[in-house]
Amino acid sequence: MTDDTGPEPIETKRLLLAVGIALVVAGLVLVAAVLPAEYGIDPTGVGSLMGLDRLAGAGGTEGTGNGTDEEGTAQRASVLSFQATFNERAEELAAAEGYLSEGEEGVVELEVATTNVTRLSFRLSWQDDNATAGMSSKPDYFELAATAPDGTTYGPLLGRNVDGPDGEIVLDAHVSATPPTLVVEADSEEEAAAQVDGRHPVDATATGSWSVVVRMLDAGDVEVTGLGSDVDDDGDEWRLEANVTSYTLEGLTEVEEKKETVTISVPAGEGLEYKLLMDEGDRIEYAWETVDGEAVFFDFHGEPGPGPDFTSHASGTTAGDAGTFTAPFTGSHGWYFENQGEKTVTIVLSLEGVYETKGVV
Fold this sequence. Notes:
Elements: H1 10-39, H2 46-50, E1 72-92, E2 96-101, E3 105-112, E4 117-127, E5 135-137, E6 141-147, E7 153-160, E8 166-174, E9 182-185, H3 189-199, E10 208-218, E11 222-224, E12 230-231, E13 235-266, E14 271-278, E15 283-290, E16 296-303, E17 311-318, E18 320-326, E19 331-338, E20 345-354, E21 356-360
C-alpha cells in the first residue's frame, strides 16, 4: 500500500507560523505592557521605562463611605497633617541716658541678638525742670530716629512736652509680621518642621547693631514774670528705653485633615442632605457638580444642635458650586440637595479639610 498523504501544504505551514508569531507578540505585550499598566507587575522593566507602571495606581477604588447609606459612596484618602502655631515674645534692651543742649544730638548703639524680629519700640523721655516759682518754660522739642542693621531708617519723629514739664516720643520700627497659623502635610513631625522652616526661614534682617539718634531741636526759653525778657534754657536730661518683639514656633500639632470624594444619587422629585461634623474654626475646601450638568436646588447650611435652628451659608439652583468654608460654630454643616427633575441626578462632592463625616441623612 502506498502512502498518498504527501507533503503538508505550504499554506498550512504559513498559517501555523503566523499563529506562533502572534502568540509570541501577545505574550510580549502582556509581560511588557499589560501587567505593568494594570497590576503594577513589571518583570522586564520596560513598563517602568515607558511610564506604564504609574497607570496601575492611577485609578481609585470606590466603596461605601463611613457614615453614608447606599445612596452615597465615597473614595477616601487619609492625609497626615500638622498645624504650626507661632507666638510672640518681647524683651527689653539696654537703656541709655544723657544730657543735650539745644542743637545737639546723641547717638546710641543698641545690639539686637534676637532673630525673627517683628518690631522694635523706642521710647525717649525727658523733663523740663527749669520752671520754678515765678517762671514758666516754653516747650522743649526733641527728635528721634533709628537705623536698622540693613540701613533701613525709621523716623524721625518730633515731640514736645505740652501739658507740663514731662515729654516723650515713642518710635515703633515695624520689621515684619508674625506668620499666621498654617497646616502642612508630611509623613512625620520632623518633615513637617522642615516644611515650616522652608516657608518661614530664620529672619536676621533686624539682628545686629541699631543706631538711634536723639536730637534736641529747641530747649525752650524760660519766661520770667516781671522781667520782660526770656532766659535761655540750657538743655535737658533724657532717657532712652527700647524693647524688641520677635516670634518663635510654638509647636506642631497633628490634625486630622481628610480628602474625600462622594458620589450622591438624588432620586427624581426628592431631596436629601449630606452632613459633616465640624468644630468652630475648622476649615474645608469643597466642590460639587452634577454629572450630567443638571441644575438642582441646594442649601449649604449649619445646625448648632438637634433643634430646628439652622444658619444658611449659601443657596440657589445650579449645576455646581465650590469654595472655602470655616465653621462659625460647632455642629453639623452640609448640603441639602433637591432634585426637581424627572430622573435621578448624580452629584460628585469633593472635600478636603478638618471635619468628621456624618454622611447622607
